[in-house]
Amino acid sequence: MEFSATSWKDNKQVLLIYTYVCAEPADTIIRYDKKLRLNVQVSCLWIIKEYNSYLGDVDLIDSFLCRYRIRIKSKKWTTRLFYHLLDMTMINAWELYKNVSIMKGKTQQDIMKLADFRTKLADTLYQFQSRSKNKRGRPDNNSRREENPEPSKRLRPGVQVLP
């Protein structure tokens, strides 16, 4: 697999390593020069334009992650990674829901907010029940009693049955 690396200095230095975009073709962009105090044209690689086009989306997802995060503390990095990916999946599902709702002609007031979407998703997953008849493991006592009812035992006088 081929990859390329680029260092770009705009306001701060940005290091990019990429595999899917080549450095060429170069293009020009307009940047403000503090020394000259005016806008100048600067040559720019295509990967930089690609990076800048998605920069706002990454910041938006980070802000949603900070606002509504599953708060479970764990020392295992795999557990933290799982919940982070679950949070990102919920945000992506909400974005898809918003896009589909807009395509269907819903107004912004009719579209659920992210907190409401997460609550509804959690309620739906909580209410979901498996319809499978084949259960693994030991059967519980209630089902065994229904199949093979035991003869009722006589209680000794003066004995109370407590729950």
Can you characterise this structure?
Residues 137-153 have a biased composition (Basic and acidic residues). Residues 130-163 are annotated as: Disordered. Residues 4-94 form the PiggyBac transposable element-derived protein domain. This protein is 43% helix and 16% strand. It is built from four helices and four strands, in the order ββββαααα. The strands form two sheets. Strands 1-2 form a two-stranded antiparallel ribbon. Strands 3-4 form a two-stranded antiparallel sheet. A hairpin with a 3-residue loop joins strand 1 (4-9) and strand 2 (13-18). It is elongated, with a radius of gyration of 30 Å. The relative contact order is 0.06. The model has no long low-confidence stretch (mean pLDDT 80).
Indicate the mean pLDDT.
80
Judging from the principal axes of the Cα atoms, what is the shape? elongated
Tell me about the biggest sheet?
Answer: 2 strands, antiparallel
> Count of helices?
4
**Strand tally:** 4
CA(first)-CA(last) distance: 68 Å
Low-pLDDT runs:
none
Strand order of the largest sheet: 1-2
Secondary-structure content class: alpha+beta
Strand content: 15-25%
Topology as a string of helices (H) and strands (E): EEEEHHHH
Helix proportion: 40-55%
Radius of gyration: 30 Å
